[in-house]
Amino acid sequence: MSLAFRVIDTGLREGRANIAFDAALVELHGEGAIPDTMRFLRFQPTALVGRHQAISRELKLDRCREAGVGTGRRITGGGAIYFSPGMLGWELVLSRRRLPMPSLADYARRICESAAGGLSRAFGIDARYRPRNDIEVAGRKLCGTGGFFDGDTLFYQGTVLIDVAPEEVMSVLNVPRAKLDKHALDRPESRITTLRELHGNTPDDTTVQKALAEGLAQGLGLSLEWSTPTPLEEARADKLYRDEIGSDDFVFEIDAPTGDDVRRGEAQCAGGTVVAFLRVEGPASTPRIRDVLITGDFLVTPPRLVLDLEAHLRGVPVSDASAAVDAFFATARPEMLSIVAADFRTAIERALAGL
Question: How far apart are CA 177 and CA 175, in angstroms?
């Protein structure tokens, strides 16, 4: 039996307001106040960092200011992205009990394959899921996605590039050299494609929405019910925007620390990059971790996992750091996409070694 799924379109909004609406959906769904929902959304020009990223390392902030591009921080992990009205956002908020799958990776594959199927059928293209969280056509990225669990709630979101210049997409993003080398690219924009380029013209938003909705409905066994946002959702989103997500404190809360006493370590893995920044204290013979910040474009769930790991490591003797990381993950048992506990341990070890 198919699952009834509400579909809403919240239109064009400022970037941080869109993220606040994301958070409102997750909270209200967890409270049982709203049903399983598919949302379509559009952004005014905005550069967004992932939940765990150091903002000045990922965005060209001066360029954002010069170009009038807003900045924001997502509630999902993953890498930095640029949004404009020429791109369409889509997302699912659903109960894991109603659509049970073993892991976040299984949800990512099923959702991305479903969305890719809808786009392929509608536009005569060969869109395919590429682990960990992309939809590509002939090796070029058409959609990026990401998500997390919050109790029984799965929040999963994606972006489809409709009509935007690849140069515009990359103009405010800092793309690490290692990422270019990984894809054998000299120019990052060469890995991006759009529906306009693939289809020969620019499809309207309604057509793209229909393609995605039908693909997700077919692939996930959903029965769609088109509706509108509720006053409750708007009020909760407005509160979250005012109290947290719309503030510079939230957007800029994670950034690379500076100072001669900061130690930095990095681990490259299939699921992204983990970067650890550490300060130590105490006598040279028995130093302890004083401060720790873990950043990167990884996808992990639950959302507060990284904060809990940082708190777990503060005050730990340097000699016990590796064991402390292993002990934390043995207890936490998180869901991660193409990344493992050893990647976090490697970043910590390299920072402590001064590498």
Answer: 6
In this prediction, residue 177 carries a pLDDT of: 46
DSSP 133-172: TEEEETTEEEEEEEEEEETTEEEEEEEEE-S--HHHHHTT
Give residue 188's pLDDT: 58
Residues 71-99: b if buried by 16+ CB within 10 A, e if exposed: bbbbbbbbbbbbbbebbbbbbbbbbeeeb
CB 220 within 8 A of CB 110: yes
Task: Name residue 278's beta-bridge partners.
Answer: 263, 292
Dihedral sign for Cα 321, 327, 332, 336, please.
positive
Q: Could you give the domains of the chain?
A: 3-251 (3.30.930.10), 263-352 (3.30.390.50)
pTM above 0.85, yes or no: yes
The per-residue DSSP string of 8-61 comes to: EEEEEE-HHHHHHHHHHHHHHHHTTSS--EEEEEEESSEEEE-TT--HHHHB-H
Q: Is the CB of residue 344 less than 8 Å from the CB of residue 309?
A: yes
Residues 337 and 106: their CA atoms lie apart, in Å, by 10
Q: What is the pLDDT of residue 190?
A: 76
* CB contact at 8 A, 325 and 272: no
> What pLDDT is stored for residue 200 in this prediction?
87
Positions of the chain with pLDDT lower than 70, given as ranges: 1-3, 176-188, 355
Q: Given this model, what pLDDT does residue 187 score?
A: 54
